[in-house]
Automatic annotation (TrEMBL):
Its EC number is 5.1.3.13. It is an enzyme of class 5 (isomerase). Signal peptide: none annotated. One of its GO terms (cellular component) is cytosol. GO terms for molecular function: dTDP-4-dehydrorhamnose 3,5-epimerase activity. The record marks Y150 as: Participates in a stacking interaction with the thymidine ring of dTDP-4-oxo-6-deoxyglucose. This is dTDP-4-dehydrorhamnose 3,5-epimerase. Homodimer. It catalyses: dTDP-4-dehydro-6-deoxy-alpha-D-glucose = dTDP-4-dehydro-beta-L-rhamnose. Catalyzes the epimerization of the C3' and C5'positions of dTDP-6-deoxy-D-xylo-4-hexulose, forming dTDP-6-deoxy-L-lyxo-4-hexulose.
Length: 198
């Protein structure tokens, strides 16, 4: 049974599960992934789901071919720090975030989510978290909107299996496929504090 942080009452401050609405008909279905606003700081009128989400300037999509591939744990440093709105378009993932906000009572805390294409839930991750996921099904497609553009020089990360994090990944290290870049990130204890507001 996947961990359910909402049922457990343990959603970190600022993190949200956004309910998307699926309009089904005889052809299939239609869904809005995000509706922005022309009014600064506001969500679309009458659309509580989008209230207070930041402006997103880039859309990303990745295909992960097989289960047991881990991408992460990633963040970008200021001034390119990114909030993310994550949607699974096909397959399923274990999505993992790590609170990296200095001074947060939850610094270093891991929260895991089960996200899938069949559940109409998106995950909003604010600035200040590392983010990663593990594919659980073949041909898993993940879409995410980000609030700052890709900036390779600002990329940072934490080792996906840092023992101090104790992430309960559903596969062993021998089973997991990671990129060379992701295998080389430091452990959390070796990461200098990040001033996100800069
Ligand atoms: C993230 C990113 C990568 N790329 C390029 C760089 C590289 O050649 C190729 C693959 O990049 P990566 O290996 O970093 O891709 P990936 O490991 O899928 O990176 C992503 O992981 C998840 C968990 C996130 O949260 C994202 O923000 C992002 O960091 O795509 C872009 O052109 N734009 C981008 O925004």
């Amino acid at each position: 049974m996947p961990f359910d942080p909402v049922a457990a009452g343990r959603l970190p401050a600022g993190v949200r599960l956004v309910e998307a609405r699926r309009h089904a008909d005889k052809r299939g279905w239609f869904m809005e992934l995000h509706r922005g606003s022309l009014v600064a700081g506001g969500g679309a009128a009458g659309d509580a789901a989008n209230d207070a989400l930041p402006f997103f300037c880039q859309d990303n999509v990745s295909l992960t071919a097989a289960p047991a591939a881990v991408r992460g744990l990633h963040f970008q440093r200021p001034p390119f720090a990114q909030a993310k709105l994550v949607t699974v378009l096909a397959g399923a993932i274990q999505d993992v975030i790590v609170d990296l906000r200095p001074g947060s009572r939850e610094f270093g805390r891991v929260t895991s989510f089960h996200l899938s294409a069949s559940a109409d839930q998106q995950l909003f991750v604010p600035v200040g978290f590392a983010h990663g996921f593990c594919s659980l099904q073949p041909e898993t497609i993940v879409h995410y909107k980000v609030s700052a553009p890709y900036a390779p020089a600002a990329e940072g990360g934490i080792l996906w299996n840092d023992p101090d994090l104790g992430i309960d990944w559903p596969f062993t290290a021998a089973e997991v496929l990671v990129s060379e870049k992701d295998a080389a990130w430091p452990r959390l204890r070796d990461l200098a504090p990040i001033e996100w507001a800069a």
